[in-house]
Amino acid sequence: MSNISNSSSMTSSDVSPGESLKLVIVCVGLPARGKSYITKKLQRYFNWSQFNTKIFNVGNTRREKHTGPSEVPVLGPISNNCNTAPKKQEKSTENRHIGTSTTHDASFFDSSNKENLKLREKWAKETLNRLLDYLQYEDGNVGIFDATNTTKNRRKWIVETVTSRMKGSAKILFLESICTDGELIEKNIHLKLMGPDYRSMKPKLALEDFRNRLRNYESVYETIDEIEEMENQKYDVQYVKIINAGKKITSYNISGYLSSQCVFFLLNFNLTDRQIWLTPNGETEDDVRHIIGGDSDLSTNGWKFAKALPKFIARKRQEFNLRQLNKQFVKNSDFFSFHNGPHIEQKFNVWTSTLKRTNETAQYFSHNEYQMKSFRMLNDICYGSLDSSKDYDFRIDHFDEYYNMIQNKLSYRFPGLGGESYLDLISRLRPIIIELERCKEHVLLISHRVVIRVLLCYFMDLSKEMLTELDVHHGYIYCIEPKPYGLDLKIWQYDETTDDFYEVDEIELMKRKRKRLSLSVDNEYKPVLKSCNSNAAVDESYASDDDDETKIQKEPSITDIKQYQKVFCERSDSQCYEFMDSNTGKERSEKSNVEKNSDTKSISDKPLEKAINTPDVQDKLDEQISSILANKELVSRLKEASYIDNMYSHNGSLVIFKYFVGRRK
Amino acid sequence: MSNISNSSSMTSSDVSPGESLKLVIVCVGLPARGKSYITKKLQRYFNWSQFNTKIFNVGNTRREKHTGPSEVPVLGPISNNCNTAPKKQEKSTENRHIGTSTTHDASFFDSSNKENLKLREKWAKETLNRLLDYLQYEDGNVGIFDATNTTKNRRKWIVETVTSRMKGSAKILFLESICTDGELIEKNIHLKLMGPDYRSMKPKLALEDFRNRLRNYESVYETIDEIEEMENQKYDVQYVKIINAGKKITSYNISGYLSSQCVFFLLNFNLTDRQIWLTPNGETEDDVRHIIGGDSDLSTNGWKFAKALPKFIARKRQEFNLRQLNKQFVKNSDFFSFHNGPHIEQKFNVWTSTLKRTNETAQYFSHNEYQMKSFRMLNDICYGSLDSSKDYDFRIDHFDEYYNMIQNKLSYRFPGLGGESYLDLISRLRPIIIELERCKEHVLLISHRVVIRVLLCYFMDLSKEMLTELDVHHGYIYCIEPKPYGLDLKIWQYDETTDDFYEVDEIELMKRKRKRLSLSVDNEYKPVLKSCNSNAAVDESYASDDDDETKIQKEPSITDIKQYQKVFCERSDSQCYEFMDSNTGKERSEKSNVEKNSDTKSISDKPLEKAINTPDVQDKLDEQISSILANKELVSRLKEASYIDNMYSHNGSLVIFKYFVGRRK
User: Biased-composition ranges for Basic and acidic residues (chains A, B) (predicted)?
Assistant: First the structure.
């Protein structure tokens, strides 16, 4: 019915007009004013939005250069951010840069100490140059210059350096963080003492030293004022001032997509203690039948999950409230919570997509206690003309599509009407992210596995790869709590037998990629991918459930993990070879003219039999299989890329092994 | 293939969480600070986003009460906005409130004049109460209190009044407009003199009077400061300060979806002289075949249009540049342009959807001179499972869907995979609106008729009805220029015979609704809608083209306008009657069990013949037709609703006439 092709060469799914998309964000502000918190949030948002963003920290350059005790006091700006370019979320600051502790004490930051001027400037210059290299020669869109930059002179130097090097191809945005709320500053200072400069120092000494350091900075601090606005006019400099963690925001001269997005994002974040819950819909009838997309009802298991969910959430909600109430009695028990004021129970929102399976999963929530709302934006990725097809059929009947998808996981757009790519999904989910950042109430988001995957990648700052590869399953529920030092993640798994939820290791789970099967072609030169028994070991790939085989136990044992499913293809030929060898950049060069063999379908039932009838075809095949297996380099590369775990020749077929993590029913 | 139903009871297509969506925006600022410009823009944006918004202007209340010369000087705040709730775009201020000119001169606004205090407060109170009524008892989401509100006392009174009446169900956002740029103020003052208070006064006197009025206000003006921040803390009051038309923006305590949207919108508008061009794709092969949706190539006519387009745009671009250059020589020739600085030619962007038909329409633009980009957001409305169906088949085979659509034009969502509603479309287009407001460069947007319709409704502030009903055709190109007093719209029509574009009357065109045909049911009790000749006079409805019959001449003559197409249905019965009578709220009550007659298809070729074979069916039919025609009230209501223009009985059929505006080939 749908003959629409979306294979337009222009696939931008994002509003980002032709203007130059390079931005230098320059931090301004005293230490312990939440600069690093803000820049890290921005970095996460931009990277997730597919604008490559890195933080360049002068403090790190200083520490890099002086891993031992400092002898040369230097007025280099400093911040608590350790990584020049933190790519992955880290659970705590404790693990960072072990062994690179420094002892730059307060005297080091004394502004009257003139002798180190040159060295200090050299480090700042080095850091800024690295940032500009990133924008100019690498694929960087946003470089964040994380330092105090508290003097007009320093800022003037930055503006001139950026302008002369980038020649107008990058905009400059100063991001000044001001804090007039004493309590907030105190908290930030305590966070600071956990940072790299003070980790090895005694708390009391560290506090004293840091306060001295602050005084040194305060003595020279110049905020961005109207005179500077005028002076910077010719450079078209923009700024945004964030006062008291976003309570008040002043923006000046904002233009350009990235700057506008930056200010909008800063306008919407908040520090309220709250929980963001994410879970995919319960298992559906289509899942059981390995059908992707669609709009089917929940399966029996799905309904069971739907019934258990409200009870679990109610319990967790109560626990959260108790924790908050407790804080009022034991003051400062949770020092790193932003708000110690009287706890008023927040409202609890349940957001679903508009599809049946999420609405059914939310069905047992009481409308009196939960605010229900469904969003089209939370719908599953649209599979276009492949919607409602069996997930293995998709890979067999639409081999070109599957091949394309594997090659361009992020930008691959499903063909036909409405078909979406992961990039489209990110674009569609951006308003949801803004809403989740803005919302001060609890939210439980019941959506689809693809959507949950993309949202988790935002919150946990996972890599580009994980946007399409993170393992997300039915029955898992993720709880995110914003904290001053980042985010806390907890994960529970629903167990059908006990009808209850069990906590699982979130660090392990956030690293786990879903398994993808290898591909091959059948004896009609059509791709075939079949498991060796009826318990089809299909990959989770897109939306259809991955059977009980891939369900993860709380503590999977070695035998569980190594339990495998045999996967084989009836035939393998040059096409198969060439596809598998796609890393070399060779393309599939030939299309067979051999007619489709009507036997193909029946083959799946008697797998390890030969599907090839004519002897000369078989000979050619055997030869090819031998040549594939003989190519040790190819085999090892395939293993490395985790396309396969093992393969060998059996009865004239190339048999491919894939190991599946999990247990069998 | 697609068996997805989107008929979820929850159809919200917008991110607007469960929180109360009521907002009181309170203007603060001296006269001639662009308050009305900003509030009108906000009103337009919110209304288009389907948040009902009205401006309540104290100056209007004052003028309403005193249409004659004033005897009682009053210090009521004033603004140049005349309409308490301007719903439609107006081309110039000249046409407004003719005959209600007032002569409240400067002494009227003297703050030392104590005697009128009571009366002044009464008017402000009346206006604020009207606003709160709108939020509380009507369907209002946002009420804008447009007045100067320049004193702390006045603002305190507002906060207390709103809080005590709304009891926390509405948030308060102060919107202070500050102007320190002398040139900008001068321009605003000159605009002011065209307003209702000064229209009938001599320019020089008016200017003097207005300056005195300004001085009176300046003497008591108190900006929102930190003390007021503190005082208003318990009321959770938010504010945003716009300094020099958005150059600098300070926001305080912003929370809530509407406030956040408001600030984001204000962050992104700009006053640069530029052009926004909108045009639907050229005619496609699917259009010729009356197929909706799809992704076909352009037709011969479509390619002709695509070739002509870049030449036309290049000419218009040159004209624009000449105009801008001219301004530099004849200073102040265009006093109402914001920027008189040296003109630098802007870049010109061409934005398309990702579908073939828009990319093909853009194909002849030079990539050197134009910045090309395609956006998925600009794609046609998604017809879901009805995609690629013939548009009359849709109305016949999916009568329920069509019925639903006619009943709920805005919220009706096409069934099946990815199917969208107009509300979904608005939600999808919002980032495009923000980009168009933010962009300082020229943009030509080549999209689809439905999308162009929705975008035009935003820019021209058209009514809710026009969102689905505005007449938009292939070959039309709309040019929008932002001006200090609003927007300038010009429209050109492509003429294939001369291969050139001609300007058409934009006022007439912005009022014109597309024609929708009446509906009926066939002799199998299935709805049928057919034209009496092969030149099918189908309505434009959704995406399929409406033939040459409906193309509009530059100056259509009476005979052209009255040229009509006969439209008839083979049979009419009680279902027809009930559908047509849907205004009464009656629903279609019966479904026929009669089997589908295979003759139906062939009937269309020999239209005015009887489709009914059995005499008793014919008798029943004749009776029903007579009863329909006898119901004078029904007939006149159908005519009023422009479902039909005329109808009569002919050879046992009910013949319905629809007039089409335009000429035949």
Answer: 87-97, 584-608
**CB atoms A349 and B253 under 8 Å:** no
Q: How far apart are CA A637 and CA A628, in angstroms?
A: 12
Of A251, A267, A385, Cβ closest to residue B260: A267
A131 plus A185 within the same structural domain? yes
Distance CA B190, CA A434 (A): 41
Does B522 map to a domain? no
CB-nearest partner of A432 from B5, B11, B15: B15
Residue A258 in contact with residue A465, Cβ under 8 Å?
A: no
CA nearest A236 in B: which residue?
B247
Domain annotation covers residue B544: yes
The H or E element spanning position B659 is strand B653-659
Confirm if A450 and A381 have CB atoms less than 8 A apart: yes
Q: What mean pLDDT, rounded, does chain B reach?
A: 73
Give the model's confidence band at B109: pLDDT under 50 very low, under 70 low, under 90 confident, else very high: low
- Residues B307-340 have pLDDT tens digits of 999 999 999 999 999 888 877 665 544 444 444 4
Residue A251 has its nearest CB partner, among B249, B431, B441, at B249
DSSP code string of A149-201: --SHHHHHHHHHHHHHHHTTSSEEEEEEEE---HHHHHHHHHHHTTSTTTTTS
pLDDT tens digits, B565-594: 222 232 222 222 222 222 333 333 333 333
Model confidence over A106-143: pLDDT tens digits?
A: 666 666 666 677 777 888 999 999 999 999 999 899 99
How would residue A525 be classed by pLDDT, with cut points 50, 70 and 90?
A: very low
CB A419 within 8 A of CB A10: no
The pLDDT, as a whole number, for residue A214 is: 83
Say which range, A194-198, A307-311, B338-342, B413-417, has the weakest mean pLDDT: B338-342
Tell me which H or E stretch contains B186.
Answer: helix B182-192
B398 noted as active-site residue = no
Domain total for chain B?
A: 3
Q: Which of B458, B484, B511 is where one domain is finished?
A: B511
Q: Are residues A506 and A633 in the same domain?
A: no
- Residue B249 and residue B316 share a domain: no
CATH number at residue B502: 3.40.50.1240
Helix/strand/coil for B177: strand
B240, B268, B296 - which closes a domain:
B268
- pLDDT tens digits for A388-437? 888 767 777 777 788 888 889 999 999 887 889 999 999 999 999 999 99
Q: Nearest-5° angle of CA A194, CA A505, CA A91?
A: 20
Q: Quick one: pLDDT band at residue A212, thresholds 50, 70, 90? A: confident
Relative orientation angle of helices B35-48 and B449-459, to the nearest 10 degrees = 150
Dihedral in degrees, nearest 10, Cα atoms B316, B318, B319, B324:
130
Catalytic residue ranges of A: 146, 179, 448
User: Quick one: A280 and A255 in the same domain?
Assistant: no
Q: Which residue of B has its CA nearest to A351?
A: B17
Identify which of B445, B218, B256, B437 has the alpha carbon closest to the alpha carbon of residue A438.
B256
**A348 and A480 share a domain?**
yes
Question: Rounded to whole angstroms, how far apart are CA atoms A192 and A47?
Answer: 25
**Number of residue pairs across A and B with CB atoms under 8 Å?**
190
More confident residue, A374 or B120: A374
Among A315, A444, A441, smallest CA distance to A372 is for A444
Nearest CA distance, A16 vs chain B (angstrom): 8
CB within 8 Å: A253 and B249: no
**B379 token code pair:** 């794609």
pLDDT band, residue A624 (cuts 50/70/90): low
CB A310 within 8 A of CB A324: no
Three-state DSSP class for residue A605: coil
Q: Report chain A residues whose CB lies below 8 A from the CB of B12.
A: 373-376
Range of the domain at A31: 23-268
Is residue B322 included in any domain, yes or no?
yes
